[in-house]
Amino acid sequence: MQRTTVKVTQHELQELKKLAGIIKNVRLPLSQRRIAKSQYETIIKYAKHSDRLIM
Predict the structure, then answer these.
(1) Assuming Cys at both sites, which of 12, 31, 35, 52 could form a disulfide with 7, CB separation 3.0 to 4.6 Å?
(2) CA nearest 46: which of 3, 20, 10, 7?
(3) For residue 41, which of 6, 11, 9 has the smallest C-alpha distance?
């Protein structure tokens, strides 16, 4: 499987870092971590499909 780099804006990067912190925090409820993971994946998917893809 080939790894792909996705170009994100500075704002998106800050949001991804915040969401990653929530996902990794085992003290938070599972439902909150699942929502954060869904939002994280949505941002990545949007960046992939917005013609900013770098190989």
Answers:
(1) 52
(2) 7
(3) 6
Residue located via tokens 């990653």 = 20
> What is the C-alpha separation between 48 and 27, in angstroms, rounded?
31
Region of residue 3 (phi > 0: left; psi between -120 and 50: alpha; otherwise: beta): beta
Instruction: Return d(Cα 24, Cα 47) in angstroms, integer.
Output: 22
* Residue 35 amino acid letter: I
Instruction: Tell whether the model's pLDDT for residue 2 goes beyond 70.
Output: yes
Containing 6, the helix (H) or strand (E) segment is strand 5-6
Q: What are phi and psi of 13, to 5 degrees?
A: -65, -45
